[in-house]
Hints:
53% of the residues lie in helices and 16% in strands. It is α/β, with parallel strands linked by helices and 341 residues long. Helix 3 packs across helix 8 and helix 7 (144-157) packs across helix 9.
Amino acid sequence: MTKGEKMSKRIKEDCYTKVIKTIQKYNLIEDGDKIVIGVSGGPDSMCLLDILIKVCKNSPLSLKIFVAHVNHMIRKEAIEEEEFVKNFCKKNNIEFYSKRIDVKKIANTNKIGTEEAGRKVRYAFFDEILNKTNSNKIAIAHNKNDKAETIIMNILRGTGIIGLKGIEVKRDKYIRPLIECEREEIEDYCKKQKLNPRIDKSNFDNIYTRNKIRNLVIPYIKKEFNYNIVNTLNRLSEIVTEEDEYIENRVKKTYESLLIKENKNEIILDLKKFNLQEKVIKSRVILYTITRLFGSSNGIERIHIQDIIQLCSNNIGNKYLTPNKNTKVFVKNHKIYISIV
């Protein structure tokens, strides 16, 4: 074991303690909260569920939790995983909601990747249960490793500074209490608490980009360059997040000054005012607009942003771009139309 590995192991805290500190640090949970927890049955989500059960029991706050599980109908083990989570909830007197969705069929129908389709159906179901239970928050089991992987994926996509933030601990109704725990700590917690989580074997299949980063890229960086790469990337995220908050406030004000019309399918901006902005603000306004429409940057990369800025600067009517299969950017009558296809 290297000196760095020994030091890393010495400074590790118990996962439960880290989650409690994260909740307090970011004010993730408040009195009266009703929280839907996304639980797949894997180590991350089972760790999160177990800890939040303890929080409910030990906290003086009035809290209620619900579990939402999505069976993607991809693997033969999926039904067993669904039953596992259901039985765990029954044992702990937690309301359990599940849904079986043919994710591959949805991916093929909508011509999107299986990962993207899976994410969309999960979050849609979480929203459904949020409304059904009159809850106000959704807890997702992303951890420190997930955040590091996301940062690397964003760097490879060329999404710029905003991509270096990775996964946020708190955004709107979503909270991520495990975000400061490493995967090794989570697995250790599950072992000590005898949770016996299910293992998704597809996580070891390197046909997916995230799996390649998780199973190949990060282990190589750890071995050859920096054993603490996960913590290093998370520190980078903290620095970027602080600086990004300042820029984001300016972007929101600029967006409001440009906005002509907004609905769930389309946003219309003032072309002339847009063209007067600095390039960095133009780029951020485009990303901000896309995020308002789709709930995420929707795969928009730097090259797409540059094309959109060029389209707007040419100021020629009836021209449009489709940076991906779901997004259309149209310039007409001194207006920018950004819409869902």
